[in-house]
Amino acid sequence: MSDFEQLTQALARNLRHWRGERGFTLDALAARAGVSRGMIIQIEQARTNPSVGTTVKLADALGVSITTLLDRDRTPRVHVVLPGQGVRMWATEAGSGASMLLGDDRRGPVEMWSYRLAAGEERASDPHPTGAFEMLHVTAGELTLLVADGRYAVPAGGAVSFEADAPHAYRNEGAEPVEMTLAVSVPPVGGGA
Q1: Is 28 helix (H, G, I), strand (E, B) or coil?
Q2: Tens of pLDDT along 31-61?
Q3: What angle do CA 132, 52, 37 make, to 5 degrees?
Q4: pTM > 0.90: yes or no
Q5: Which of 25, 26, 102, 193 is the most buried (most CB within 10 A)?
Q6: What's the 3-state SS for 135-153?
Q7: Please, which residues bridge with residue 171 across strands?
Q8: 106, β-bridge pairs
């Protein structure tokens, strides 16, 4: 079985598990996540590979991290992710992309991402649930962060945190690639979500 097939199977298994754990019917999860009932059925039957946006909406609605939904083999105490072993979530032909490095949901979902934005590229994000926040550290280039109606320049070596329950986007307006590490914290279900 390929890595892609294993990931699809893990997502199907974990989505069914967490939907059952939360006591959500298909209709309840669909309404809570803003994802169609049919799409959830296809995912739970491992018949489709949803977009990153759909996966994020389902994770947020369940109050778990994306890593929890995609995890094939959780380790109990220490989880080392070697270079190149993160879960590649998206990529563009220009060289932009993001990989989920780590995540945990014991105290509310927390995720760590590695991002790369090629010159001139942008990645937009839907608002997360109320109470969610993000922290990021730019290691190369200069990031233009857009949050609601605000615009913030974050140079290499700089860091920023923000409430992520508003529309936000990461943009590279420079000539060099932007590289950054991003952490996302979402409150647990019932904890302000």
Answers
A1: helix
A2: 999 999 999 999 999 998 888 889 989 998 9
A3: 95
A4: no
A5: 193
A6: EEEEEECEEEEEECCEEEE
A7: 122, 144
A8: 108
